[in-house]
Structure formats: C-alpha cells, structure tokens
Amino acid sequence: MSSTLGTLYRVTTFGESHCKGVGAIVDGCPPGMELTEADIQPQLSRRRPGQSDLTTPRQEDDQVTIYSGTEFGRTLGTPIMLLINNKDQRPQDYGEMSRIPRPSHADFTYQMKYGVRASSGGGRSSARETIGRVAAGAIAEKWLRLTYGIEIVAWVSAVGDIEAPAVDLERISRPEVDATLVRCPDGAAAARMEERIKEILAAKDSTGGILTCVCRNVPVGLGEPVFDKLEARLAQAMLSLPATKGFDIGSGFAGTRMRGSMHNDLFVTKGGQLGTRTNHSGGVQGGISNGEPLVFRVGFKPVATIGLAQETVDFDGREVILEAKGRHDPCVVPRAVPIVESMAALVLLDLALQQRARRGSCPV
Q1: 70 pLDDT higher than 90
Q2: I need a labelling partner for 125 at 20 to 30 A (CA). Which of 16, 98, 109, 180 fits?
Q3: Domain 4-361 class?
Q4: Does residue 86 sit in helix, strand or coil?
C-alpha cells in the first residue's frame, strides 16, 4: 500500500481511524526554517471534528507533537516526525458492521485486495488519515509563504445544488472563509447551505459539495513537462483524498463550451512583465505555472456511511438491513477546506524544490 507522496518533499502518512494515533513523516524539508507546533496547529484545528452541529460529534483536540527533525525551533533538514494522538476512538461502534461491506465505502475493495481490513471506522480509508497530510502541508505552506509569498485559500462554493456566487480571487482570505460555519464566504449562500445540511442530518442522510481553491503569487515555472504537469500533480493529490469524485482547473468543463477566440488568455504587460488579460487557463499553461493565480475546484461525493436504513448484503451474500452507527459528517466539505489547502501546498513545494534543483544545476 503506497502511503507516500512527493519526490523531493516526501510525505508518508500513518495510522488508522481508531488506532492510538495518526501522523506523518516528512522527508526533504529545507533546513534552517523556524518551526514549532504553533505553525502546524491552526490548520489541524480547522480540520478537527466536533467543530459545530454541522459536523461529526467525535471530540478530538488533534494536538500535534514534533518528535524529530528540529532543534531549538529550527528544521534540521532531517526527517520530521509528526504525531497526533487519537483520544475519542470507539471501535465498538463498528462491531455489527464488521461483517457487512458498507455501500459505496472501501470495506469490500480493501477486504478483497488484502484479505483483511481495519473494520472500525474504515481504517486507512477514513478521512482521519488526512490529519498527517494537513500537518505536513502546514510545514510546506510556511516555506512557500516565506520564500515566494504564496497564499493558498480554499472555500465551499457549493453544497448539493446550492451554489455560491463567484468571489474576488485577489482578495478572498481565510478569516472571510471561516466567518461562517459552512466555510462559504457568501453569507446568504452559507445560510442556505447550513439549513440544507441540518435537514440532511435530521434525515440521517448525507450530501456532497464543491470546494474552490486559489493559490496566489505562484512563481512562473512550476511543473514538469508531460507526465508531471502541475495540473496533473494537483489532480492526483486532490483525487487521493477520501470522497473526492471530480477535479477541474481554470475554465474546467465549462471551457469545452467556449470558442478558442473567447477562451484564449491574451498576453498583456502587468507591472513591467508579461501576464494574461483573462485566466481561463487557471494559472497553468503547458503544465507549467504562468504566474497567474492558480484556480481549481474539487468535487466531493455524499458521505458513504449514513444512519438511514439500507437494504444490502453481508460478506456471505445474506440480505441485511444496515443502519450504520458511529459518528459521521453529513457533509464533508466544510472540514475539507484545510485539507485541500494542505494538499496544494504539498504539490507546490515539491515542484518548487525540483525547479530550484534544475536552476542550481545550470552553468552560471
């Protein structure tokens, strides 16, 4: 099972939903950067469960501890171990479900692939695995911010069929996003989304949604031609997240309905250097960042585990009625905001280090 992402900035996550803890090993973080738990904790706190009545009631502080890779508050360039203890795990909630593959979950495929699985909470397929990604992403994000001034902001742009209006990509900020429980910066749309999620929760059901993310101040040149294009790496990172079902960048699928004369991003001079008048490309051309804001969207399906009674079969093929127990989000997108931001940071740092290595090998 591959649990490692990246080439130069490599992140390996570990842990299951109801084991003693989860976390990550980060290898390749540049040395000399100031780093303490205080740099990592804010994103983990935005991701943690139990934030409101719109999320799972599982109570976890998700406090991170740095076990290696730093001394006197600075990175050493050696592997960084990050550990977050599980405190509110309840594997007994899943006893009845251990013999039933939950519909649209990973129970069946994991069992068939490995011959064994963690039956409580989905194990590695649980969204709790993403804690390690968020912790490692917070480190990457700090380096990107200090080195290039990169700003990464994601927000909820749709819940079910409720869509929020477009935002100002140059000004949108995390405080603005976090001003509503559903993490949608448009107050009117957020209110409708929150009401919809409460209705879904009361019905013991779930719903999906869409996150939009913008990365500002990305330098020109990130991304490798052909197979490791920037958008390809982003798509891999985002679609590796639990419950994701779609990714598009720039104009996305809407661009297929446009003519080339309308879709082309014409070049203009901005601040003494070349830029584009529009940004249908989403900040990427030929798989390489062009200096414009990087804009993409990630689609999340409805949570697979629901409390509503469902007619299905167990592993022996016997018909059963499944009413899943446990604590689950009726809609994952509000808590997925920092996860998407973190995955973007992991991809950008890895590609930035590759680009710096290329420049370092060029003759002066």
Answers
A1: yes
A2: 180
A3: alpha beta
A4: coil
